[in-house]
Design a protein that fits this description.
The chain is mostly beta strands. It has one domain. 2% of the residues lie in helices and 39% in strands. Strands 1, 2, 4, 7, 10, 12, 15, 18 and 21 form a 9-stranded antiparallel beta sheet that branches. Strands 3, 5, 6, 8, 9, 11 and 22 form a 7-stranded antiparallel beta sheet that branches. Strand 8 and strand 9 form a beta hairpin. The longest helix is centred in the N-terminal third of the chain and has 7 residues.
Length: 315
């Protein structure tokens, strides 16, 4: 897997604070994981969510993973009858947490929890955690897997829907304090597969994949978008290119070539929702090798700005 990311571009992003997932810049309401008994038309394709957090070399103190609304049964969740679902949140570090191919496989091979289990907690319908933050840790950054191309140590967060058929809606924050959300300078977060809830109102959400220099094409894959608007691609060389959106309980994909000027830069995949209905969907992106492409909570180098190539002629 070509998971090298340009260190210079990452360094330019390190002044940003990308520790909330989903991040405000993505304009996504909540991450979502349904229980194993939920039907596929809920929008959750596999009942597992994996997020990677990078703790930079410069940070020498313990870190904490904070989870907003980890229980299932309260204000922000989605029920199918009385809430009966359990969700497991796990923090994984050590060798193989990221570098193992299974850790980045969007098809969820059996070893997706590769690495060393650092902590795990199961939540059901605990009313006391409704709309509250739960803290896991502390974790020594050295407990993560060292990945030099990311200038730090990676912690893997694995969320698993266990028995039940309800949807757990939650958010993360990687903090340097246990009792509040305090950003870690230089930390960031990314994923290879997102299952998330769009805002209920008409909205514009963003997915920010980073296009490495070896990529010559990408395929965007999305599931259960319910034909609820349009999916558009923006880069420095593309302006409002339509990508194929999915219907109810179906997958859709579309292939998009990458030109030289788009490499080592961020792409903006915009999801334009037009209804006011609840909508949970899944998105992932692959390159020409069928390898998953990472997308970041904050766009590396900022959102792309289309470069108009206007030709002016004079008489």
């Amino acid at each position: 897997m070509r998971y090298f990311v340009c260190a210079l571009l990452l360094a330019s992003w390190f002044c940003s604070m990308g520790q909330r997932v989903p991040n405000e810049s993505e304009n996504i309401d909540y991450l979502v994981t349904f229980g194993q008994d939920a039907p596929p038309n809920t929008g959750d394709d596999d009942h597992v969510q994996i997020i990677f957090f990078v703790v930079p070399y410069s940070h020498k103190q313990p870190v904490y993973l904070r989870i907003f609304d980890p229980e299932l049964g309260g204000s922000h969740d989605e029920f199918v009858g009385p809430p009966n679902t359990f969700t497991r949140f796990s923090v994984v570090g050590g060798k193989g947490a990221f570098s193992s191919k299974d850790a980045r496989d969007v098809k969820l091979s059996s070893n997706y929890k590769s690495g060393n289990m650092l902590a795990s907690q199961v939540f059901g319908n605990e009313a006391g955690m409704d709309s509250e933050w739960y803290t896991m840790g502390p974790f020594n950054p050295l407990e993560g897997e060292e990945i030099p191309s990311f200038n730090g140590y990676l912690l893997k967060i694995v969320v698993e829907g266990l028995k039940g058929n309800d949807g757990n809606h939650y958010r993360f924050f990687l903090s340097e304090e246990s009792g509040r959300n305090k950003s870690i300078e230089g930390a960031n977060a990314f994923a290879y597969n997102y299952t998330f809830k769009l805002h209920k109102a008409q909205t514009l959400a963003h997915i920010y994949p980073f296009i490495e220099k070896s990529v010559i094409s990408i395929t965007q894959h999305n599931f259960d978008f319910d034909d609820d608007g349009e999916i558009l691609i923006y880069t420095v060389a593309k302006n409002r290119i339509k990508a194929k959106g999915s219907g109810d309980n179906t997958w859709a994909h579309s292939l998009h070539p990458i030109v030289e000027s788009e490499k080592n830069l961020t792409m903006d995949i915009q999801i334009q929702k037009v209804s006011s209905q609840e909508n949970t969907m899944t998105v992932y992106i692959t390159n020409q090798y069928n390898e998953a492409v990472p997308f970041f909570a904050l766009p590396i180098g900022g959102p792309p700005k289309y470069k108009y190539n206007l030709k002016v002629t004079t008489k």
